[in-house]
Each structure stands twice: as structure tokens, then as C-alpha cells.
Amino acid sequence: MKRISKKTVGIAGLSVVAVVLAGCAGSGPEASEPAEELPHGYVEGAEETAEAQSRLTVTDADSGAVRVLDLITGDVTEVGQAPGVEGAAGDGRFAYLESGGAVRIVDTGSWKVDHGDHVHYYRAAVREVGTIPGSGLVSAHSDPAVVAVSFGNGSASLLDRAKLDEGTIGETGRISDVARGAAVVPHDGHLLVPVEQPGQVGGVQVRDRDGQPAAAIDQPCPNPAGAAATRRGVVFGCADGALLVTSKDGTFSGEKIPYPRPVPEEERAEDFHHRPGSDTLAAKAGESGVWSLDVAHRAWTFAATGPTLAVNAVGAGGPLLAVTPDGALHAFDAETGHETATVPLLRGPVGEGDAPTIEVDTTRAYVNDASAGVVHEIDYNDDLRRARTFDLGGRVAQMVETGR
After folding, report:
1. 332 backbone dihedrals φ, ψ, rounded to 5°
2. What distance in Å separates the CA atoms of residue 228 and residue 295, rounded to the nearest whole number?
3. Each residue of 148-191: pLDDT tens digit?
4. Closest CA to 98 of 143, 139, 53, 142
5. H or E element: which one contains 58?
6. Quick check: 279 and 266 in contact, CB under 8 A?
7. Cα(218)–Cα(197) distance, rounded to whole angstroms?
8. Per 3-state DSSP, what percentage of the chain is helix, strand, and coil (rounded to 5)?
């Protein structure tokens, strides 16, 4: 792959004509050098590539080591120490690791820029950016201007995305009235903030970049929890289903996607997982199964899996994936809920604190096995075939994929 370089626009047949004015002996100004034009999509210090440069950020629960695994080259980059990581999140480029009452931010050096009709993929050096205070990490959502890092105590830290791209941290504000366990999501130049106030039904507010109220979504969302940003809008989990928030010409609106049947509180969807860019979401349904939400068709599907440790959804036409406590990986039809494949994957039953994560991209899924110190690459389109296994050593306890 070639590194993108600046290119100079040549100007054929350029000539400079000296104009002699009557009564003046001097000539006109000399021609200046033509301005240097940068290629479309140019990012200083980064290499543009033709395909996604997926990377996994993993933490070792034994040593506290943080490593970034390049899934293209297989290379591993050490990125310092973060002992006792309790939570991890990603926003497509940065990994956010909660440890010791703070969130450590790692620039994985892998990301994409989606222009709608085309996508740019980039790779750069891995680096540690710094930390922000906070515990109970819920999620991190971002757009080109701001990152919203949400915490379980009902607060969210707003970070300047441009500064993060440059390798520094700049907090632009903090929101303190988020519904507990819910997440703030940037969308269409604004912030979508799920709130729940005493004596009122929960809902979603539209706020400006500084966190000041701008509008409110008229559809209620009782007990909001969980959020997912999709191409069709932002989905929030509610006690009575899901709320899809969209915007058009600066106007925000909400559409409720109710559950297909009465759902007890312990079986509601509270934490969505999906492949970035897809409109099919997965969420645990308590100890009884897994929910699949097809946002395009506004339809829920229930898969009776029993207890699960991790779930994710591949996307339209692809399977719903789940790991059960016995260490097996299962695939389910996302439209019917019927099981289509199962394979023993993890090294025996999973102990407390060693629950895996399932990360998904357009062709593969990645599952970490903490006790074995490995990450398995799964071809989910080939009966869950194990394509590669990366031996990282230690206890691979947390995992985040970027660059998709």
C-alpha cells in the first residue's frame, strides 16, 4: 500500500505577460507559485487504504497490559498498562478503557470516514492519548465534532473530537442529568440525551453541542437504557420497546417500535450490539434469550437461547451470534430465532469475570477467551468455522474493535 502524498496541480501552458503601463518603467508583479492541492480525503500523518484496517484493543486482566492487534498484519502493539480494567467501549477509532476511577483513551490508529456515497479507510500509528475521570463506563459515541462518554451515574463527558484526532484531550462540557444506565449520542449536529425526571415519563431531549436544550422528542421512552447509532437513526431502549430517533432538515422526530408481546422488566433489551453500519441489533433478554431488532422493518424477533454471556448481530441476512456459559458459540436466524449452527469455542465453562465479547465486521466475528489468552476469528458465513486464532497470552478480559 502506498502512503497518500500531497500532489501538485500542474498548469499547462501557463505564461506570464508583463504589462507596461504608460508612463511607468516597471513591469507587473511576478507570477506566484500555484497552490498545492491535497487529494480528496487526505489526512495528515495517516495512510489511506482501499479496505477496512480492523484492529482489536485487548486488555490482560493479569498483567494490566493493553495491546492493539492489527487484524491485517497480525502485529501486536503494546500500549502501556491499565490494571483492573472494568469496562471498555469504542467509537470506531478510539478505545475507552475504564480502570481505577478513570477512563484511558487509546488511539488505535484505525478508522473510517463515511461520506454516505463512499467511504475512506485510514491507518496510522497506535498511541495513548490520556485519561478522563469517571467510573461505570456505559458507552462512547462520536461524530466528527464531539465524543460523548456516558457513565452509569447519569453523567456524560463531552470531548472535542478534533483534539482527540490530534492526540490531546479537550473536555467541552459535561451533562449530569442523563437517565442512569443510558447513553448520550451525537446526531445531526446535536446531542440526543435520554432523561428521566421524578414524576415524569422518560424521554429523549435534543440538545446543542454545549448540552443546552433545543427540542424534545414527542414520543415517550419510559426507563431509557441502551442506545445504538444506525444509518436509519438512533435507537434507544425503552421499557415498552425501542424509540427510533431520526432527523430531516433539522427537525427531529421519534417512532416507537413496541415489543411484539408483554415483556417483563428482566427481559427487556437494555444493551444493544451490532455491526457498525448495519440496521440489525442484538440485545440480551435477561436469562431467557436474545432479542433481534430489525430497524429497517421495525420488527423484533426473540431467540430462546437461555442464559448468554455475549451477543451480537451481523446485519441484514446474517445470523444472530451468542456465547453461552458452557463456552459454545451459537448462530440463530435473526428473522425466525431458530438456531442454525453451534460450535464449542471457549476452553471450558466460563468463570465469573471472564465473560467474552463478540465483535463483528463485514466478514468475520471475533471472540475472546480470557482463560486461554486467545482471540478466535470466526467465519460466520461458513457454519461458524474458526478461521484464525491469535495467541496473546495472559487473560484477555476486555476487547474493542475499531477501523470497521
Report:
1. -130, 145
2. 11
3. 999 999 999 999 999 999 999 999 999 999 999 999 999 999 99
4. 139
5. strand 55-60
6. no
7. 16
8. 0, 45, 50
**Length of the chain in terms of residues written:** 404
Least confident of 36-40, 42-46, 193-197, 389-393: 36-40
Determine phi and psi for 377, rounding to 5 degrees: -100, 125
* Contact present, 148 and 186 (Cβ < 8 Å): yes
pTM for the structure as a whole: 0.89
Arithmetic mean of pLDDT, 237-259: 97
Q: Is the dihedral of CA 131, 164, 213, 241 positive or negative?
A: negative
Give the integer Cα–Cα distance in Å for 290 and 168: 39
Long-range contacts of 247-254 (CB under 8 A, 24+ apart): 247/187, 247/188, 247/190, 250/188, 252/188, 252/190, 252/192, 252/206, 252/215, 252/217, 253/217, 253/218, 254/204, 254/217, 254/218, 254/219, 254/221
- The pLDDT value recorded for residue 136 is 97
Lookup: cell for 298: 421495525
pLDDT at 35: 54
Nearest CA to 226 among 257, 182, 195? 182
> C-alpha grid cell for residue 194?
435520554
- Which tens digit of pLDDT belongs to each residue from 255-280? 999 999 999 999 999 999 999 989 99
